Amino acid sequence: MAIYEEARFLTGQGAGVPYGVLGDLATGAQAAPVSGITAVVSGNASQLTADGLYDLVYTIASQYRRNAVFVMARLTQRDVRKFKDGNGQYLWQPGLQDGQPPRLLGYPVYESDSMPAIAANSPPIIFGDFRNGYLVADRIGMTVERVTDAGTTGTNTIALFARRRLGGQVVAPWSFSAQRVST
Question: Which of 72-76, 128-132, 179-183 has the lowest mean pLDDT?
């Protein structure tokens, strides 16, 4: 359930699922009323750039950058880890303590394979303050029911049905920006 929920909180488009942070931005509809977040171009038609990451960070006002984090897929992290500054130093910094996320440009980086891959016109990175910018509504909590009917489950089998109603929506779109692979 957690994997499904994570995917919907990032890329959901409403209609029976939460509105994701990327909302319609993931499908190419830049002016999506679902999320309203800013898309920042990477500066290259088919890949990410270090300059694009700097632009991404400074699109958000300083009061929202304090709690901001990067979210990207595993393969996007692989490519971003190779970025270097003008002195040949990697921009990516591994976590210095157990349990601490790695850092990029001074901000924590989290991995989610629900994020889009690096491709032309795709938003493979989201940067923002999830704590204050996105609201998750847990409607009734989770209920779990054990099914005891042998006709439904079969002999010597136990079935559990879990139900959970969640909603989610960006409440402060100005606290997010998405990196779009584009010139």
Answer: 179-183
CA-CA distance, 170 to 24, in Å (whole number)? 12
- Per the CB < 8 A criterion, the answer to whether 167 and 18 are in contact is yes
Distance CA 169, CA 148 (A): 37
Q: How many domains does the chain have?
A: 1
DSSP 126-174: EEE-HHHHEEEEEEEEEEEEEE--HHHH-TT--EEEEEEEEEEEES-GG
Q: Give the residue from 8, 24, 3, 36 showing the smallest Cα distance to 167.
A: 8
Domain limits at 22? 2-180
Q: What is the pLDDT of residues 85-129, one digit of tens each?
A: 888 888 887 766 777 888 899 899 999 998 989 998 888 999 999
Q: Report the alpha-carbon distance of residue 109 to residue 3 in Å, rounded.
A: 18
Length of the chain measured in residues: 183
> Taking the CA of residue 176 as centre, how many other CA atoms within 13 Å lie in the half-sphere pointing to its CB?
26
**Tens-digit pLDDT profile for residues 105-117:** 989 999 999 898 9
CA distance 30 to 37: 9
